[in-house]
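Progress note, project year one: complex with magnesium ion.
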Amino acid sequence: MLVTLIRRYSKPYFPYVAAVVVFQLASTIAALYLPSLNARIIDEGVSRGDTDYIWRTGGLMLGVALIQVATAIAGVYFGSKAAMAFGRDLRRGVFRKVSSFSARDVNVFGAPTLITRGTNDVQQVQMLMLMGLNFMVATPIMCIGGIFMALREDLNLSWLVWVSVPVLVAVVGYLVVRLMPLFRSMQVKIDRLNGVLREQIIGIRVVRAFVREPHEAERFGAANKELTDVSLKIGALFVLMFPAIGMILHVATAAVLWFGGQRVDAGDMQVGALTAFLQYLLQILMAVMMGTFMAMMIPRASVCADRIGEVLDVEPSIREPLTPVAPAQKAGRVEFRNVSFAYPGAEVPVLSDISFTAEPGQTVAIIGSTGAGKTSLLALLPRLYDTASGEVLLDGVPVSNLERGDITQRVAMVPQRPYLFSGTVEHNLRFGKPEAMDEELWEALTVAQAADFVREMNGGLASRIAQGGTNVSGGQRQRLCIARALVTEPKVFLFDDSFSALDVATDARLRRALKAKTADATVIIVGQRVSTIADADQILVLDKGRIVDRGTHEELLERSGTYQEIVESQLTAEAVA
Ligand code: M5T
Ligand code: MG
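Model obtained:
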């Protein structure tokens, strides 16, 4: 998966990658050249007192060093550019994919892990790209070139290379192998922490109301501790890593000086060659270390890449039709034909054998006890879910054959749990129709009985709405959502219990205004209060996912037991209140 992702998302940046390769090649060769120049200055210049030679070689050394620095900077610059662009594209890919998910697809993963995958996991892969681009070329050349140059300085000391490199590889490799599973579990712990935190922030009011803070703090504490424990274990290994590497480097240095010093004493080797050899050995060991670090990042990044790949590979369960049908007329006629529906993974259907028709200009109301399936029924029209059997038709065409945009253009839903986005009032109202004029917004607000309180808010249309719409009351939120639906001027309105948070008087006023505004539209209202739905053209009584009776208020009052019960229960409730 890692390879696939890198291949797919780094393609546009090949020119950058090519630049990185060229610059790193240049900088590595320059770096390898420097110790040898240094040795020449000592052995040929200093030892013979040849000032001229020292100046010339010193100048050359300065030039090479400048080239090395410049090319190294350029290499890192292009490498970072490529890696960051890669990360951005990958994040965008994940975001686009998640945006195409249906409610069901999101539930398969859960929001917290989708968030981690789109942020932290992408970052890990991006990090590997960055390190890879910065060291991939340099490391092997440094290693092999370093060995070659070191042996050129002195063959007799070569055994020091053959001993110290494997020791370093063994030590770092051992630590890396121990670290791998820890990194893997770290990703899961981050998911879990995100999940707990997210749930608590969203549910903060409930937590407060039930004084569950201690319990929730405990839950968070547990997740937090798990993450800390893993991080500490990783830290403990890293603590070992640096002294171990330092030790190997120092022992190698001491060994070079010890054995090399004896050869210099015996006159078999020059001091400059010894310094150069030492510098090369250190370069080799550094390169080996970087290589091992890289090797360590690959498994971690590949865990992340797999997790990202899982998201990218999802086939959205609700797909656009291959050959969309354009309906002959777009009046907004809704028809349910023997519809059954079950939530994914659930055994029992929540809706069975639902059939009804709602004509333009008509109001169809759905009433039924909580859990009867009213919300689920509405969700089928904008195709938030697909039916198990039967068909949902809009203007005579099954919604599964309609283009998504075609449906949303004609159908506006006010969800049971109204949701507002952070931004301003007008930003929210223009959600479905960005080009709407201010007058249209005010008109919609007036119909939705929201104009007064919006006028009273400090900025009017420009007043701020907090994330999730938490700075307005439940009823205000509902009315803003109704206004938002009105602005789009759809053919079909779906109101899911949208008047429940309003007092009876406002409810009545709103429905009167709505009636004038939606005269030609098809309106489907889910309501709890009999008063809300009494004047509907047709009332469907829903019970346990089945339509048990239908008719007008008067007809139902006469013959439907369930309906009578509902009416009676509300009358008594009102009497009690
Ligand atoms: C009907 C189940 C739920 C309930 C039944 C929304 C939703 C519902 N269900 C799921 O399994 N997953 C879901 O995402 O479906 O639920 P409903 O359609 O929401 O009922 P309602 O709108 O009539 O109830 P209410 O309380 O809004 O009046 O049993 O288990
Ligand atoms: Mg509902």
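Residues 213-265 form the longest helix (53 residues).
Residues 343, 346, 350, 368, 370-376, 416, 497 surround 5-Methyluridine triphosphate (ligand 1) (CB under 6 Å).
No further modelling is planned for this target in the current period.
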